[in-house]
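DATA SHEET
Item: assembly model
Revision: 1
Owner: S.N.
Input lines:
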Amino acid sequence: MILKEERMVILNEEDIMKIRREVRFIAKKYDYSLLNITKLLTATSEIARNTVIHGGGGEVVVSVIQDKNILAIKLIFTDQGPGVRYKNGTNQVINGKKSGLGLGLKGTRNLMDEFSIQSNEGKGTRVSFLLRQT
Amino acid sequence: MPSVSITKINDVLIVNFPKNLSDKLVDSLQNTILKEIKNNNAKGVILDVKIVEFIDSYLGRAIIDIFEAIKLFDVAAILVGVQPFVAITVIELGVNMKAIQTASTVERGLELIKMESGYDS
């Protein structure tokens, strides 16, 4: 069941900060622990920045999902940028402008309960992640 | 727009980070801090992140760069006030901040700098 769903554009740095504020607001509203709020804010910041810097802007859909008694916040970022290129057969990013890109994606995967990335060179990128409330 | 505030205790600069940093602010930090070190002829710098909500890879990288630059000035630098949740998250994120000297509070940071640089307050 979707309790809440919200779409926001991400074109610049102000939008990144706006999304962080919104995610903080939602996580607090649904009683997320301070640790989980910190993790969500960090993940949001990493991926939103990628969307601006590497994707040339895009959008995010923030949703709150409830499945039985389990509540989760999910974010789906999409952009139409050049996409992420991986070194053959590995998950090592090779076309990041700064070394920060690979670390941001890998790190975000560590922080979240679920993480996925779909990216084809020239066809944009879709990154989604989810963190459960408990 | 939030910004850093810099105060001076004897010869040590205390740089207070705001709760929420824009990337633009992060980009300007190194320059601001190095200028203040030079203008004040500071012996030490304490970066206080007590109210910072999270350190992502961008801010983490910037802090590491700032410490490296400060070292070139032969000035002691200490990071203080990292909140437990921020520390856990930054480690899981994979940002390696091992090279950075830390202390729990500004007071403790001041003591360490005093010991290290041998200056007398």
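QC remark: Chain A has a mean pLDDT of 89.
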